[in-house]
Design goal:
It is a single chain. By secondary structure, the chain is an alpha+beta fold. The longest helix has 47 residues.
């Protein structure tokens, strides 16, 4: 019995030893496998993927920021600042480093007590969709006071930093906005056509005018800055910086003092004024009224202000200088007359009798002077703006001859000024009507075309260019706003068959201002220089009875008032075109005042010369 128990005890001990060894070996094996896995994983991380994970590790410590370029400034011809950059503050957030986004949003609403809560909600909705590791800058500026208040509580909000940036400002506000244009936030459509690398760190782009046309020059190129941060995103030090390349400053041909004066002349009116140097095509004044403040658009205009501007019946967004297309009215008569005498359709001395109308094909085409001008030659027809003279002249020429005479002056074609979106107007011909209307041309349409009505449409800039070419005796100039942009290459010249014909037309325009019966003789009286001009009116709608009672007609249906002119006559320094929408009359007064202001300090003082002469004689 005892031997049996002893045998069983030895067997159990042997079995237990074997089980213990198995467990021990298993544990050893498990540990070895675990260590082998750890060693393999370490080799994978430290050897095969060293570069990758080293970069990620450095990213927790070193971040790369884009340095936006400084936008180039814009100056007028006298180095007066028109577009500047003002330092402001902005808040930048990184989502993965923020502890409580909701708490910061509430704090921000208290901080920016002037900003509407719904706007903040929109910004944070976009922020939640943003890349977690990329910075997002709130699209508005904070004042110095708000920046100081945030600095006090910034420790509560890791991942939010206060950064300084430059904001575009227009110190003259609404002055010359249609020439300068403005900057605004980049939209999705614009983003697709941009080089994304060039716009890192910035979210604005030129939207219109010079700001848009010279965007590549003004924008510059971004730089890069490496900074070291702690685990909570606080900046410890700057490591390496590649500075941004600033945009270039540009100088315009505009005379901002003359611009402001021209805008004051059109105050409370709708219309356009263009002043141009006939010698080189430099635009001196570029006025489209009414206007608006471009500063509203820099940080994003609110819906209320935008709706107000968009729904304004005076349409301030329209650039009337290049997009306003108006019947040129009687301002076209000198160019028609020049084409007629240059091509021998009529002699300048040939007289035509005007009874106050022209009877043609059963229709009576009335002159603006109902009892007529009597016998008139070309000079008198221009000076007194005799419609009947040009009615009869049109039947001699035909519409195609009129078209060919006016086309070299730029009518019906874009001037190619350095602003986008220019309209080209309409200079009708038989071919044009067949192509656009699918109908033949009628001679009755030629009659009204000769006085700038019918299908004729022109922009104020086209009128200014044509007037400058006439003042130059045929030298074609290129209107431009960027100063010193054009080379000294020879200008094109309209073929002159007889220079005396040009002088005869200019004499007629001179008599408009200084003649005994000129239509602008009151404005030209006592001028210290000789000036050539041409008044005009353009009907807004057709009149069956030939006249209307202005007091009984809606203001917006009154005639437009137009004027073109240049001075001095022999050595022109300025040419202007003016249109007052529904103004009836008065454009010539504005033109004379503008030219007087510009030439005030540029012409010798006759009184001073006279005084000096008297002193010399007395001696």
């Amino acid at each position: 019995m005892q031997d049996s128990l002893k045998f069983n005890s030895d067997a159990e001990n042997l079995q237990q030893k074997r089980l213990f060894r198995f467990r021990l070996y298993f544990a050893y094996g498990f540990v070895l496998v675990l260590f082998a896995f750890l060693i393999g994983r370490m080799a994978h991380l430290q050897w095969y993927n060293f570069e990758r994970y080293h970069g990620l590790a450095e990213g927790n410590r070193i971040s790369v920021e884009t340095l936006p370029p400084t936008r180039g400034k814009i100056y007028d011809r006298n180095h007066i600042l028109l577009a500047d950059n003002q330092p402001v503050y902005a808040l930048t957030m990184i989502r993965e480093k923020m502890d409580d986004i909701k708490a910061f949003k509430l704090e921000l609403m208290n901080l920016l007590d002037t900003t509407k809560p719904e706007k903040i909600e929109q910004y944070f909705k976009k922020f939640r969709q943003w890349n977690r590791s990329k910075s997002y800058t709130l699209p508005f500026s904070v004042t110095e006071e708000q920046a100081a208040r945030f600095s006090v509580i910034s420790y509560k909000h890791p991942g939010v930093t206060l950064t300084a940036r430059l904001k575009r400002v227009y110190p003259n506000k609404s002055t010359a906005v249609h020439a300068l244009g403005y900057v605004g936030r980049i939209n999705e459509k614009e983003l697709k056509g941009l080089n994304a690398k060039e716009y890192l760190g910035t979210n604005i782009i030129g939207k219109s005018g010079i700001e848009r046309y010279y965007e590549k020059i003004l924008h510059g190129s971004p730089g890069i800055q490496q900074i070291e941060t702690n685990a909570r995103g606080r900046i410890l030090r700057k490591l390496e910086t590649i500075p941004a390349t600033p945009g270039k400053d540009i100088q315009l041909t505009l005379d901002i003092k003359l611009q402001q004066y021209a805008e004051s002349l059109l105050k409370e009116k709708r219309g356009a004024i263009v002043a141009i140097d006939p010698q080189n095509g430099e635009i001196l004044a570029f006025v489209s009224m009414p206007t608006f403040d471009p500063n509203l658009f820099v940080d994003g205009i609110n819906q209320k202000n935008y709706s107000h501007l968009l729904n304004d019946p005076d349409r301030p967004f329209i650039n009337r200088v290049i997009n306003g297309q108006y019947p040129p009215g009687s301002t076209i008569k000198p160019f028609v007359a020049l084409g007629a005498i240059e091509n021998n359709y009529i002699s300048p001395k040939k007289t035509v009798f005007d009874p106050g109308y022209l009877e043609f094909a059963g229709h009576r085409y009335r002159d603006w002077k109902r009892w007529g001008h009597g016998l008139v030659d070309m000079n008198a027809a221009i000076a007194q703006s005799c419609d009947t003279y040009f009615y009869k002249l049109s039947l001699l020429m035909g519409v195609d001859a009129i078209h060919d005479a006016l086309a070299p002056f730029g009518f019906g074609s874009k001037t190619n000024i350095d602003i986008n979106g220019e309209s080209k107007g309409i200079l009708p011909s038989q071919e044009w009507k067949q192509k656009t209307k699918g109908k033949p041309w009628y001679r009755g349409e030629t009659i009204i075309s000769a006085i700038g009505q019918g299908y004729n449409l022109t922009t104020p800039l086209q009128l200014a260019k044509a007037t400058a070419i006439l003042a130059n005796r045929g030298k074609i100039i290129q209107p431009h706003l960027l100063r010193n942009e054009l080379t000294d290459s020879p200008s094109e010249q309209i073929e002159i068959k007889k220079i005396s014909n040009w002088e005869a037309v200019i004499q007629g325009m001179k008599n408009v201002m200084h003649g005994a019966r000129g239509t602008a003789r009151r404005d030209g009286k006592n001028l210290p220089f000789k000036m050539a001009g041409k008044t005009g009116t353009a009907q807004v709608f057709s009149l069956n009875q030939g006249k209307y009672n202005a007091s009984e007609l809606a203001k917006r249906l009154h005639d437009h008032s137009l004027f073109i002119g240049f001075a001095p006559v022999n050595k022109p320094q300025i040419a202007v075109s003016i249109i007052i929408e529904n103004g009836g009359r008065g454009a010539s007064t504005l033109g004379v005042n503008l030219i007087k202001r510009y030439l005030k300090d540029k012409l010798p003082d006759k009184n001073t010369k006279s005084d000096k002469k008297q002193k010399t004689t007395s001696k």
